[in-house]
Amino acid sequence: MKENRKNNLIGSILLTVCAIIWGSSFVSQSTGAEYVGPFTFMGLRSLLGSATLLPVILIKDAVQKKRGKYIGLKTKQERLFFIKGAIACGVSLCVASCLQQIGIDKGTSSGKAGFITAFYILLVPIFSVVLKKKIRPIIWPCAAAALGGLYLLCINESSIQSSDAYVLACAFCFTVQILIVDSVSPKVDGIKLSCCQFFVTGVLCLAPMFLFEDVSFELIKAAAPSIAYSGIMSSGVAYTLQILGQKRTEPTVASMLMSLESVFALISGMIILHEMPSVREAAGCVIMFAAIIAAQLPIGKKTEKVV
After folding, report:
1. Over the stretch 90-121, which tens digit does the pLDDT of each residue have?
2. What's the number of CA atoms in the CB half-sphere (13 Å) around residue 113?
3. Chain-centre distance of CA 291, in angstroms?
4. 252 with 306: CB under 8 angstroms?
5. How far apart are CA 197 and CA 91, in angstroms?
6. What is the pTM of this model?
7. What is the pLDDT of residues 137-153, one digit of tens each?
């Protein structure tokens, strides 16, 4: 019993740190946008994130081989499935991430971007209905409440700002990306899949980066700290913490802890960038966060993992 409590505590700490890193990375995205375009930022960030995971993979493989538990891609079908899955995950991640960065580049604050992006937590189970998966009844009122929160957060004078529209579109794309990962990850190594999807995202950003943006060494150098934090900490370190934390934590608790990302995005923006939300925006954030948390509570939920 004590061992289980210890594991749960360690898992909760790891996932909380993960949420802090992800939330604060919205600040680095905002500061990076002051120097480089969205494709430059996302391309370099993703390639750096992929490179950061390589030593993790090498160490993990070495440990597994030493223990005689290493399982690689043995057949042609397994390798082909992995390649197709990595490409699909990378393409969807590229679209979602670039839309998010474009929205931030156009003026959406880091805190608001964090909350709008978090809408995917409700969109995933709703989209799952199309895939004929069962969802709990509580999801519907939570989704309605979250829409109300989004309205307060984004809609001003009966119209949505273009920057917020990009971030909202990113939430829909992240939903697709998560569903793709959900179908691929159980059959492959999760860290290797993440490494490859970051690599695909980075490569896809290179062409528009050189075609549409002003790429200069001086500007990249100025944005280097922001790119490094987002690439190394948000992509590499935080993803590893997520893997380790989820192994020690119940799915419901894990998802709630990771949803704190939006809260830390708002707090980081207020402390570091002095981004103060209006009363209307703050109310929208509170409603969205309450809906997100309520959607993950085990109401009407059996012991198995439910979407």
Report:
1. 999 999 999 999 999 999 999 999 999 988 88
2. 34
3. 18
4. no
5. 8
6. 0.85
7. 888 888 888 889 888 88
d(CA 151, CA 90): 30
